[in-house]
Amino acid sequence: MNTIFNENQNNQLGNMPPHEIPNSSSQDFPEREHELKVALDVGTTKVVAVAGYRNQNGKIQVVDFSVLQNTGMVQGEIFNLLETADTIRHVKEELEMKLDRPIRKVTVGISGGHIRTLYTREYFIRTEPSELISDEDLDQLAEMARKSVIINPNEEILDVYPQAFLVDNQVVHGSPVGALGKRLEASFMVVVGNVEKIKKLERSIGMAGLETEDIFLQPIASARAVMKEPQCQLGMALVDIGGGTSDILICNKGKVRFAGIIPYGGDYITTEIIQKFHLTPSMAEMIKMRYGSVKPDAAEKNQTLQIPLDWSPKPLRIKREMLSETIRFKVDIIVNEIDRFLDEYREFFPGEQIGLGVVVTGGGSQMKNLVQYLQFKLGMDVTSGDPRSLLAPNDKIKRLYQPQFATVIGLLDLALQEEPHTEPSKMRNDEQREPGSPGVSQNNIPQTNTLEDGEHEDNDVDDLLKNPGAFSPKKQSIISRLLQNFSSIFGKVIDETNK
Predict the structure, then answer these.
(1) Are residues 487 and 433 in contact, defined by beta-carbon separation less than 8 angstroms?
(2) Which residues, 6 or more positions from 366, have their beta carbon under 8 angstroms from its beta carbon?
(3) Would you state the pLDDT for residue 407?
């Protein structure tokens, strides 16, 4: 059975000694060539490609990577296809030179507020209750869910995923197929999105000479990189502050319960600094990261920065306190959005607790005192997360240990989740998966159908999962691959304590 998180994240396995780490020449590891995967993170501020394979200890062995600034995206969505494709192509060519081999396929991440999830609940009375419940019965429920939700004209239903099953008002643990019953009921997540926006990503990748092998929601990848299985079991929220957006994902009882995209990230703060102090974007970003603080230390409050300017004989003078106030003003807006998503989650899953607080990652998470400020504002524990626990030690790739690379490392881990080790006897014991149900919410209140007489409100949906593959045939489009991967990653996690 597959778990959301790697087994390696919960123990301290040894790693390959440094002399066994392959260099960038293809002839040094020809037996691993079929295992080498490439992950591509097309972000608002940067494009990153990382190539690697899983070593015999289950760690990701990064062979090499390439990073380049991106200018073709706005708030996590592609604005200029040519610019984005050109950046991807340059990253591809640079990585190919380092690897001394061509790159043809990549695993990519996607974000953006156009992807959202609606919630609905359906039931029907079976005409032959003495017959075993079948996949066809589940198909009927899913089709009812498709027809019940109301979507915008520019949206399309991408797929339907079950959250919970009841048979004759009794909670079903797992699949109801094979059970006997008259009344069959299920709650669903209906994933919708702007199809054209999603296709833009695949098109830009194709223009760069690459093929999209798999596609995943970015907060899924980030959670894979920085969360551990016990944290997901006990309840934890992820906040990934990127350049254009901030992603939030809530994991509880072994699976993802809620996710959303906040249309503000690090660039949102940088823009405020640009406007406040009349700086160039690069200068404002440098000042934010080098001198900025969400809340300045006591010794910094009365300090004045003197920043030399190329276009002026006089340096720019900025009070640290004023810089901090400028940053904090925008951070508070992001925090309010995080609070809104947390409240929405609590409303839909009453009684569930985010017991372990929040893990924050992404490039924007590195601002001074941000973790402490979030802890104060949110009223819960907040820690910083990075992807190093997935990686085999290698001085060459220490840059990838930083939080801004959590998404791309998580994507690479997902790309390698079914790759065999060199020695078959050491293959990971997670080849069999039990898919579950993702949730992505963007500026919507969860919808539920009105319960009729004789029905009851069931809050124990966390115990109910069903393989969504039974609801629709395998599709070849990029949208279908996205949704299939949703279900494959957000499967039920093995609860060791119940064994």
Answers:
(1) no
(2) 289, 402, 403, 404
(3) 95
Q: Which domains does the chain have, with CATH numbers?
A: 116-193+435-498 (3.30.1490.110), 282-327 (no CATH)
Token pair recorded at residue 77: 């969505």
Task: Give the DSSP per-residue string, 11-23.
Answer: S------GGGS--
CA 157 – CA 498 distance, rounded (Å): 37
- Of 130-144, 247-261, 279-293, 366-380, the least confident: 247-261
Q: How far is CA 67 from CA 46, 139, 169, 379, 488, in A?
A: 7, 44, 53, 36, 28
What does the pLDDT average to over 150-171? 82
Note the pTM of the prediction, 2 decimals. 0.72
**What token pair was written down for 21?**
């780490």
Most confident of 21-35, 66-80, 193-207: 193-207
In 3D space, the residue among 95, 96, 97, 71 whose CA is nearest the CA of residue 84 turns out to be 71
Q: Quick check: helix, strand or coil at residue 471?
A: helix
- H or E segment to which residue 359 belongs: strand 358-361
Residue 474 · residue 480 · CB < 8 Å: yes
Strand, coil or helix: 76: coil
Q: For 43, list phi and psi in degrees, rounded to 5.
A: -100, 175
Amino acid at 383: T
